[in-house]
Structure formats: C-alpha cells, structure tokens
Amino acid sequence: MFKQYFTLKNIIFLLLVIFLIYIMPKVTGIALLFFAAYVIACALNPYVTKMQERFGRNTASIIAVLVGTAAVFALFIPILLIAYKEIRTFIMYFPQKLVAAIQYLTSFSIFGYKLSDLISMDNVVGASPDVAQNIVNHSWSFTLGIFQVAVVFIALTMIIYYLLADKDYLKKKFIEFFPENLKGKASEILTNISNKVGGYVRAQILSMISVGVMMMVVLVILGVDYSLLLGLITGILDIIPLLGPTIALGVILLIAYPLGVVKIVLIIAGFLLVQQLSNYIVRPILFGKFMQLHPLMIFLALFLAEQFLGFWGVILSPAIAATVCVLIDELYLAPINSCKLEDIENENC
Q1: What is the residue-averaged pLDDT of the chain?
Q2: Which InterPro entries would you find in this protein's record (predicted)?
C-alpha cells in the first residue's frame, strides 16, 4: 500500500527536508535577510507593475529600488539635519544628565526609605569608567560593525532588485515544484502572501510616522527638550513591537526627569495616549487595510520570533505572521470549511 510513496524521488526529497531542518539554525540570518528583501520587494512590486509598461521590467525595478533607497534617506536625513543641534547638545550633556539621574535616584525616598538603601548605586556609578574604557577599546569593532551594516544594506538592495526584475521567472520556477493540479492553488497562495507582506511595509511606515509626529507634538506642548529628536526616536523604535515603545519611554523620562513629578506624570500619560491612539485607531486601520491581520496573531508572532529568530525576527514578525496565516487559511481552514459546506448541501438534498 505504501510502496508508491517509497520512490527514489520522495526519499531524496525527505532527506533534503531533514538536511534543511538541520542547517536552518545556522542560516537563520541569511533566511531573514532574504525574507526581508522579499517583504520590501512585495511592497515595491505594485509600483514596478505600473511603470513596466512604460520603461520595461528591469528599468522599472531599478527606478523603484533607487527611489525607495532615496526615500529612506530623504525621510531621515532632513530630520537629522534639523535636529543636528539637538543631537550634538544631547550627546554632549548626556553623561551629566545620566549622573544627575543617578544622584536623583540616590536621594529619592519611598515610604521613608531611600532608594540607595534598597539598590546599590555604587556599582552603577563605578561601572561607568569601565563602560567608557570598553567603548574606546571596541571602537574598531564598532567601525567594523558599520562596514558590515553597509555590506548587508548593499546586498539587501541587490536581492530586492533581482526579486523585482525576475519576479515572473522566479514565480514560475517556484510553481514548478508542485504537481499540475496544484499549480493554480500555489500561484494563488503566493499572490495572497505577497499582497499581505507588501502591505505590512506600507502600513508600518505610516504607523511609525504617525507615532513619531504625535509624540513630538506631546513633548513640544509639555516643554520637553529635544522634542524633535525624541519624537524621531519614538517613531523609529515603534518598528519593534512592545520593546521599542518601552525603550523610547525610558529615553524620554531620562531627559525629562528635571521637569518634576507632575510633568513626568503628564509625559507618561501623553505617551500612553499616543500608544493607545496608535494601537486602537491608527494601526488597526492601517494593518486592517493593508494586511487584514488580527493583533493577537501579531503578539504570538512577536513572542515566537523573539524566542527563535532574535532581534530581526521580532521586526519581521508581523510579515511572518501574515505568511503563516495565509498558509493556514488556504491549506487547512478553506478545505475543511469547503467540505463542511458540501456535506450540508448534500444533507439538504
């Protein structure tokens, strides 16, 4: 009965799957790089499709990649130039503010007990020279890290270009892995995945911009220094679900603590208000329009990605969740519901 399955082709395929599972932990970074390129390519593909009739697929892909790269720089460079003075002042006075914050915490009392009695501040203060020395000692590693980021960025750009330029060829080769009766379904599933993960990029960019602008307005109203810079940080960190906003709030409070308890409470309230507006109004509208993905799935994908895929997996977790949801819907839920519907119709007959 099972002899038909024990063919040489199936055995080779099974061994290949086992080999891929074995090496997957070793190539996670490469897999995430290609998946990130695929996500960005899906976001740019609608624009390439519109331009290819006029310029051709290859030229349209080059234009899309160049414009996309220029848009990234155009988004950050003017803001950084405007905030240059704030950034320079922030870097210059950050050590003093950090020391002042430690002194403030040292003298802070809770129910008559000083915080310094509960938490040893000597270790925190004593560690600062070591931190500075480590920064100097590892300056070469930092420079090398910047070079590696540049190499990865160039590689990512090239991968995106080839995914866009050879989209039809790559899709055709992918569908060839399926038998004739499943080719149409495979093509439909791939199209659905591309539409959803492409929508993730557009939704995420708009969400980051909205969060950054709203937080900047709140900080300006409350008279917090470096409002533009802190709004920029909040918007950029919003790409990291849960953890990003927490880090942004910590940076804001570190800068704003001299304003007093009342202002700090108002800042926290304003930050929470911005997050609520983002989570319950902005993001549902954007992600509902572009991805049709429930927030619970995003949370589940976030925790699983953090556990198995690391930092970049967390950033790509909504796109990964969209891919998995499409596969579950098309390969499991849709066939089951179709069978149930057929059974009901047969019973009625």
Answers
A1: 76
A2: AI-2E-like (IPR002549)
**Tell me, what's the pLDDT at 213?**
92
Partners of 110 in the β-ladder: 113
Q: Which amino acid, 36? A: A
Rounded distance between C-alpha atoms, residue 344 and residue 349, angstroms: 9
Rounded to whole angstroms, the Cα distance separating 11 from 4 reads 11
Taking Cα atoms as reference points, which of 239, 244, 247 lies closest to residue 319? Answer: 239
pLDDT of residue 273: 93
User: Given this model, what pLDDT does residue 135 score?
Assistant: 47
Cβ atoms of 83 and 225 closer than 8 Å: no
Neighbouring C-alpha atoms within 13 Å toward the C-beta of 1: 0
pTM of the model: 0.65
CB-based contacts of 229: which residues, under 8 Å, 6+ apart?
83, 86, 87, 90
Q: CB neighbours of 297 closer than 8 A, spacing ≥ 6? A: 321, 325
